[in-house]
Amino acid sequence: MKNVFSLLCLLIVSYIHAQDYRFGKISKEELSETSNAKAPEAHATILYVNEEVFFQYTENEGFTVVKEVQKRIKIYDKEGVDWATEHVPFYDNGSSNVENLSELKGYTYYLKDGKVEKDKLDKDNVFREQTNQYWGQLKFTMPNITDGCIVEFKYRKESPFIALDDVDFQYDIPVKKLEFNARIPEYFYFNKYLNPKAKYVAKITESQRNRVENVNSKQRSGGAGFSNTQTSFDSSKWEFKETEYMADLEDIPALVEEPFVDNMDMYRATAKWEYAMYKGPDNSIKNYSTDWESVIKTIYDHSSFGGQLSKSNYFEKDLDALLANVTSNTERISLIYNFVKSKVAWNEFYGDYAENGVKKAYKDGTGNVGDINLMLTAMLRYAGLNANPVLISTKSNGIPLYPTRNGFNYIISAIEVPNDVILLDATDRYALPNVLPSRAINWQGRIVREQGSSAWVDLLHPVSEDEKTTLQYKINPDLSAEGRVYVKLSNSAAMKFRSKYDNMGDDERLRDLEEDKGEIEISNYKIKNEDDLNSPTVDYSYTYVLKNAVESIGDKLYVSPMLFYATTENIFKQEKRNYSLEFTYPKDYHYTVSIMLPEGYTVESMPESTKVQFNGNEGTFSFLVSQSANMVLIKSSFQINSTFVLPSDYDQFKQFFGMLVEKETEKMVLVKSELKGTE
């Protein structure tokens, strides 16, 4: 009996000290916490998040998908205040068939004179915004945010669409407790995919449960007259099974951002759900996403995709005039490509479908990605070219690892020629054939051919970012350097330059060129091919005078040979990488430096020539030095042939880049000729 009593006391004590996650049950202990004991660097912590998803049934509407969310977040300091604002996306295309958000409730809790006080979320801090034609968001900011406060809110989202939102099991801040529950009736088959790149693995259990719904029916009987009619009601039980997915997770580490990663979401612990099949009570079956061919057929048959490709009457007259007497396919491609870029401006919205329709976009002069690149494809086909749209997923949207209608959010155009594919994106005025904007370069795209077939197209091996620079100078008696710079930019380097300096005046350009170059004065700036969008290159040059370019110590001069082009810092500082380094484009930089020595000086020492490689032929750095009379010539080149560096190769790459920094910052020492001769 004594043992039973002791056990009972232990259970009571455990219950009293157990964390209470019910909405509004905020403790003084939570409010008194000044940091996360397991992650003291965190500026905020999610104390509790609960997400429950279930299929609600009504006789009038059938099944609707309901998601209920509760979050409790501790904010330690001002760096964590962003977590007091929440964005809840919802589908809204302007029709009556939209997702509905309701039951929003929230409070900010804080300690005042040792007591727990709270401020309610006011409706004036809640905003509904339309983000594009199809999506809106509910945005709200919790009130009275101070260091140490706790914000807690909950809401309900109801959707008439049979679809499940992605579920994040990892956030950018630590999570102490996460609960997830989804119950799916047996009639709806979803493919579930956990992000294979995530380092944190969320454990999800799966089980079966029974469900019963009461279904009412109404019948009329009796004579033809209303007075003789009788109404009877029947109630029956509808029994079926549900699959239940559950997660009960604790102490989830934050997804810590690392430099040179385009999208950290690629590594977030996430579950994605793809609606694959419906199997009704009568055993009728409708497939949705079972394989890539059926997925592509569903997309192509949509009026806002394949239906747009079949339209041409809106542009035929203009295109006939544009292509009159043109016999070269290369010229046809160039003319059509630049015509679309100048005719329709991108409205900054993504989309794997046309938003307003190609005809309206052509008339209005603006459209989303789908409008523009489906229009481009239709024009290229009209001109007799083998052009097809390519579905892709931008970096911010992740990688479609499985057959999915929702995994794509962008379209480009492709022209298939013998042994090659020419990729085009007309949303960027300065993009070039096979030189895509960085947002569109993500793993693979799916080309959708007119006859219904599809195939993967590689996007991970774009043409390199090329920069060739010639730096010439002489060293003046006042220790300044005076000379000229010639730069030739090709491919994506030319695209970036044009985009950066678009609509920038001459004075602003000069200030930008002079930035981070020391006490420099630039003049005689000249540029070629900037406005020639058919040219893959941009050339510019300028003269300059750089004060205090040389350091004088005693009778010796110390020169950094590459002047303002020297890489002075190893930007790869991390001791260890968790994720791959990502370079959107391969790099190919070449510098030729010609130095005229000052009169009366000779070289006492200079950097030695060297050549190093990274991981075979994935990277090369060479630094070659030679001298002829009073001239010193340096040729430095740096190539990265791979767009990824794996974490296992990071140490080697860090040393490789460190060698570049060491060599480019090494000084050349000059000494007066007569002094050297007497030593």
From TrEMBL:
Transmembrane segments: none annotated. Residues 1-18 form the signal peptide. Residues 323-391 form the Transglutaminase-like domain. Residues 65-202 form the DUF3857 domain. The keyword Signal applies. Keywords: Signal. It holds the Pfam family DUF3857. It comes from the Bacteria. The keyword Signal applies. This is DUF3857 domain-containing protein. It comes from Formosa algae.
